[in-house]
Design goal:
Layout lengths: L1 H18 L4 E11 L3 E2 L2 E2 L1 E4 L9 E9 L8 H8 L5 E4 H4 L6 H26 L8 E4 L10 H12 L18 E4 L2 E2 L5 E2 L4 H10 L4 E5 L3 H4 L8 E5 L2 H12 L10
Parallel strand pairs: 5-8, 8-11, 11-12
Antiparallel strand pairs: 1-5, 1-6, 2-3, 4-7, 9-10
Helix pairs in contact: 4-5
Amino acid sequence: MRLVICAALVAALLLVAFLARLPFAIEQPGITADTLGSHNGQRVITVTGHSTRPTVGNLRMTTIEVTGPDDLPNVSQVFHAWWDPARAVVPHEQVYPSGQSVEQVNQINQQAMTESQNSAVAAALGYLHLNPAQVKVTLRLADVGGPSAGLMFTLGIVDQLDGNGTGKAGAAGDLTNGQNVAGTGEIDDSGNVGAVGGVALKTRAAARDGATVFLVPRSECSDAKVDTPKGLLLVPVETLNQAVGALKALQNHDAANVPHC
């Protein structure tokens, strides 16, 4: 009887431990959105004050999804996510810092997105030598926060105004050459591309949605190469000029001038 009681107590303790919520968050591939098209019924990029050109192909920004602030995983969920290459386990405070409400975290992410959009517009118009006082670019992407869409926003603007990367608005041709191109990377007003994190999950989101080329900040090549989806070409970039140059080389089937991770 004592053995039975002890076994039952141990089993109960193990069950409690197994179901206990742990201070982690689980990340997985999120949505992608074509910056040349529409998302949730709204045009992602709208240009006024200058003519635009029709485009083909895709320039997809990529995201990751994360469990909610109160949705703490149990031992089983953490264990399975830890060994699943399509998911990542991170400390809860890395995503939801202590002392900040969910509203504050969302506000910070939205502010980062706004700043990223402003920098994308500045970088694109600077590259095309267009006067921002004469050309207005509006970017809309609901329910997405953070700065990581900067590079793809910039390329989307350039493609609609320029096309083949000449730096002269109104040129013919497409940056994508009809391909499904995805990528990630923060950008500043001068066109420098910065690291953003989560690239191993973003490559999976890109491949899931049909991308064959993925632009990645050069400093994150090693992370992007972890379990890279089959058929996805990783192209490292540090600047807008490099990104445009790599896409032009892909257009011309000039493999020697396309950098690889």
